[in-house]
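Q: Can I borrow your eye for a moment on a structure tokenisation matter? Would you mind producing a protein record, from residues through to fold? Write it directly below this note and I will take it from there.
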Amino acid sequence: MADEYVFKPLNMMDSSFIWQDKCRDRISISYGKSGEAFPSKEDPAIGYSAWSLFTTINDYARFVSFTIEQSCIRGSVAEAMLKSQVNVARKVKWGIGWGLQDTVPDYSFWHWGSMAGFRHYVVGYPKEKRGVIVMTNSSNAFKKVDDIMAKAIGGSYPSYDWF
């Protein structure tokens, strides 16, 4: 269903929730906290939305850009996804598939991921039409994300303090 409703319409041709052999030569090696290399994760034959997305920065940027652009359209899927569903911490809420946070000057949406040495963090500002995606291949990456975000966009990220 992700192919039909998300990947194909957004031209995300390098994204899948299950392993594709075309990824073999493109996937990076990931590293643990002590610098040890993890074997590549080539086995998901069944997709798991919480952790098995194989994608590229370009494909993921298409999805984030779509979410930002469509968020202001009444009745759009993006608008629904960015509506607060539950409060989880001070200034941090969950929408549908995205975390939401109270940031300045307006709210932002965010997500993070972690799997066998890979780490990512994304934040998007719908009203400002801006976003930053950080994708890494190190278990130590979250220590650096705050510095990257401060230099790229500035501000604070309540979600980053929460997780």
Observations:
- Helices lie at 2-7, 57-70, 77-81, 142-152, 158-162.
- The chain is about 25% helix and 25% strand.
- The chain has a mean pLDDT of 86.
